[in-house]
Description:
Layout: E1 9-13, E2 16-21, E3 26-30, H1 33-50
Antiparallel strand pairs: 1-2, 2-3
Amino acid sequence: MATRTFTAVLHKEDDLYVAECPEVGTVSQGATIEEALANLKEATELYLEESPLREVGRSFVTTFDTTVL
């Protein structure tokens, strides 16, 4: 069994934190950042038990500017 590092992207929706793993496509939530990450880890592990991940490159996060009217 190997350990692999994945990306977690989090944002707040109302009273919950939503966490997404872009490499796998799993999403979870929690009342705290720590809970959202723990739930995302569990969801990702369960998903990968049924659907092994093919080799893909690492995701990266960047920003961009846009005009808002």
